[in-house]
Amino acid sequence: MGGDKISLSDKDFNSDDYENSVLLFWDTQLGKKTVHQLPEHQIYYYYVVSPDKGKLAFTEGKTLSMSSDVIVLDYHGEETGKFALPDDWNLFDWLNNDTLLIRQTRLQKDKNELVAVNPANGEQQVLPANFPNLYSRETLVVWGALTIFDPTASLVVYPERNGNEITSVVWDVDNKKEIASITGVSKWPRWASQGSKLLIVVDNRSTSTDVGHEEIFLAKPDGEVTRSTFFKEHFEHNILNLPVWSPNGRHVAFWLSTNVPIEIARLAVLDTETLTVDLYCNEVNPFPYRMAEHNTLGYSYYQVNAAPPIWSPDSQYLLVENYQDFTSNTYLFDLKNHAITQIAEGARPVGWMK
User: Fold this and answer.
1) What 3-state class would DSSP assign to 296?
2) 143 closest CA partner among 291, 48, 256, 242
3) Mean pLDDT across 232-247
């Protein structure tokens, strides 16, 4: 396959079993498996892999205000960094290959900043959030943070409110000017790994009473904004969730649902150069029910609960979680041959490293 190490969490949360005890690093080329013991048996752990696929950071899934540690592992499963996470901070993502992003929770309602932390030396930097008309009451359910920075932290997208209209603004941090704006109810803003493009999902319904039609828009650093999907022409309604850029910056994998309520979805892959979408027939449940009892998750429900597709380092394969009967199973999608294979039972994928 297209990389060295697949990372799996050995158990999932269900009504009878709270155990998440180990991370399994599986070398797909050598057939070797290495076990990393997790610090505690918790309901949930949250994992993020660096853009270069070289490091895996994780922490306990925080349903309540509590202190914990962020631990960073290399592709061998060996610890390369560790730092304390204050009780009002949550691990969010990687800014770039060397820097983690930490989000302050809504316990601090006046705090909209992200904190950039270098896990190798502990250095911290608070990223700015004093942008014009930043709408601090915008939901974080499908944004994850109010400010989404590119890997250099020189460009940022954030929600702006003008009257009753919400606009997503792309802002040049260094030159303090607006680059682009995207009108409409938006979610899932995601920068490509090199910061060459910004993806954002926009509800493209024509009237307030129209059935929702979500489409992908792309913005370039020069301000050019283009609509990249046209699902409204093919479905009565559609919902897009959890888009993820491929490592090569060309493709976007996401979950497409055309039924309400959302219980199942189909894997879709957008080619951003040809603007074509491959839609796979297999329906899965990428929205696990774990932690549903913990209402304190609130805005971070998708952030720690749902299962985004996971790209292989060579952008040729995807790992997905299928959650059925309170059990997670891992499937491998071969994009070139349009084939799907179950590769693990009772375990969920959390990363693909090299």
Assistant:
1) helix
2) 242
3) 91
